């Protein structure tokens, strides 16, 4: 079944007042970083932290009375689970969510807090989906697909209606792509409102399933990505032809660029964005010349980021920016030498974060030692200044970094 513009307008009427009409705001920080005139659609401000409640509500609200009494089942490790659980609770519909066994406890707890029964099954989302369909057949439950459903697609398409109502002069929409529900709905709506608008999809390099599908090629997908929300190995059968017809191109971005986008959003835009939600900005960071000078709308599709992972991304971002450096300093193994190193770094304006003092496992004379010092700095130039000061003080010093081959040098 093809989703039409009328379907999306009907979905918008149904959602009016029932989901947050999220802000569509200019981003000077992202504009400065990319050279484009960037407008952000902040779907991470939704109650459950992502765009998913839009499609979920359209689907659940249209169930007949018998289906509502029987209940629904969905498979998800995160945003779809919470979107279904949230609206099922408000509509009085029993909801079962099947989550992969490796799902973090925090996501399980959030879903249960929204009133859903959680079943842990499968090593991954594919296994969870198989179990969800078994429960649907055995218990007469309505299966709520995360993207391959006309109601879901229509609900997600309302994001584009709001963006173009707020900023009708947008030239490009850049949208994260997993199974394709969001971009299929948005592209249908956007091209109906503005036939000349360009719609670009973004996937992680490790999961280029939609890009390959629309090109008629078999995709090789797999691996650990920070954008797990769009780590979909098999795109939707309903969404695929819509993407092929209305989307100008689906591009991919690497993990480092996704991390840079998350870091930029937090440090300069002051918002928390998950990996999938940062994919649209990552596309601009990866190819700024393509978007320079153009008015570009980015969908910030979600903000449900694990706190530990976010902490690691922030620290790695400081390293990439030259604001955190690890120096290896050679010293005499005598009293006071380490203090002199610390004093030299402090006098040069560096802040020592961590010290690892090692005598035994380095290939140096027995009366010498090497110290690894993690130092907070202003920028790469400041790092070089610290190294020069240490060498001038009689302490041979080099910066440790990752080489292209992945080994420390």
List the helices and strands and how they pair.
Layout: H1 5-15, E1 24-26, H2 28-34, E2 37-42, H3 53-61, H4 65-70, E3 72-75, H5 79-91, E4 95-99, H6 105-113, E5 117-120, H7 125-139, E6 142-143, H8 150-166, E7 172-176, H9 181-193, E8 198-204, H10 209-214, H11 239-246, E9 249-253, H12 255-269, H13 279-286, H14 288-291, E10 295-300, H15 307-320, E11 324-332, H16 337-347, E12 351-358, E13 368-376, H17 380-392, E14 397-400
Parallel strand pairs: 2-10, 3-4, 3-6, 4-5, 7-8, 7-10, 8-9
Antiparallel strand pairs: 1-2, 11-13, 11-14, 12-13
Helix pairs in contact: 1-8, 3-5, 3-8, 8-9, 9-11, 12-13, 12-15
Shape: elongated
How many discrete domains? 3
The helix fraction, in percent, is 40-55%
Radius of gyration from CA coordinates: 25 Å
Let me know the largest β-sheet. 6 strands, mixed
Low-pLDDT runs: 402-409
CATH 2nd-level architecture of the largest domain: 3-Layer(aba) Sandwich
- The rounded distance between the terminal residues' Cα atoms is 56 Å
Q: What percentage of amino acids are in beta strands?
A: 15-25%
Q: If helices are DSSP runs of H or I spanning 4 or more residues, what is the number of helices?
A: 17
Backbone structural class: alpha/beta
Rounded mean pLDDT score: 92
CATH fold annotation of the largest domain: Rossmann fold
């Amino acid at each position: 079944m093809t989703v039409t513009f009328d379907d999306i307008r009907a979905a918008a009427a149904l959602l009016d007042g029932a989901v947050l009409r999220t802000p569509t705001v200019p981003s000077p920080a992202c504009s400065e970083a990319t050279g484009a005139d960037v407008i952000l659609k902040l779907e991470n401000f939704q109650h459950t932290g992502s765009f998913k409640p839009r499609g979920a509500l359209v689907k659940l609200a249209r169930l007949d009375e018998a289906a509502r009494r029987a209940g629904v089942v969905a498979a998800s490790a995160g945003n779809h689970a919470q979107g279904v659980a949230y609206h099922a609770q408000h509509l009085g519909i029993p909801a079962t969510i099947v989550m992969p066994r490796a799902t973090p406890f925090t996501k399980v707890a959030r879903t249960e807090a929204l009133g859903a029964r959680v079943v842990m099954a499968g090593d991954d989302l594919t296994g969870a989906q198989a179990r969800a369909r078994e429960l649907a057949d055995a218990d007469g439950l309505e299966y709520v697909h995360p993207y391959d459903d006309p109601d879901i697609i229509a609900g997600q398409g309302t994001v584009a209606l709001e963006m173009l109502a707020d900023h009708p002069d947008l030239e490009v929409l850049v949208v994260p792509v997993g199974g394709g529900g969001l971009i299929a709905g948005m592209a249908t709506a956007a091209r109906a409102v503005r036939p000349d608008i360009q719609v670009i999809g973004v996937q992680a390099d490790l999961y280029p399933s939609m890009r390959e599908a629309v090109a008629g090629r078999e995709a090789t997908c797999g691996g650990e990505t920070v954008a797990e929300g769009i780590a979909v190995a098999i795109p939707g059968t309903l969404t695929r032809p819509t993407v092929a017809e209305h989307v100008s191109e689906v591009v991919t971005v690497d993990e480092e660029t996704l991390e840079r986008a998350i870091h930029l959003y937090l440090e300069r835009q002051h918002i928390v964005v998950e990996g999938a939600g940062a994919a649209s900005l990552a596309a601009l960071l990866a190819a700024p010349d393509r978007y320079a000078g153009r008015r570009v709308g980015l969908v910030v599709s979600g903000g449900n980021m694990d706190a530990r992972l976010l902490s690691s991304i922030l620290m790695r971002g400081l390293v990439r920016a030259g604001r955190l450096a690890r120096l290896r300093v050679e010293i005499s193994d005598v009293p006071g030498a380490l203090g002199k190193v610390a004093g030299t770094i402090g006098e040069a304006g560096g802040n020592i974060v961590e010290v690892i003092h090692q005598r035994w496992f380095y290939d140096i004379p027995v009366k010498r030692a090497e110290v690894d010092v993690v130092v907070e700095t202003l920028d790469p130039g400041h790092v070089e200044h610290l190294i020069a000061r240490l060498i001038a003080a009689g302490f041979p010093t080099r910066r440790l970094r990752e080489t292209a081959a992945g080994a420390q040098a």
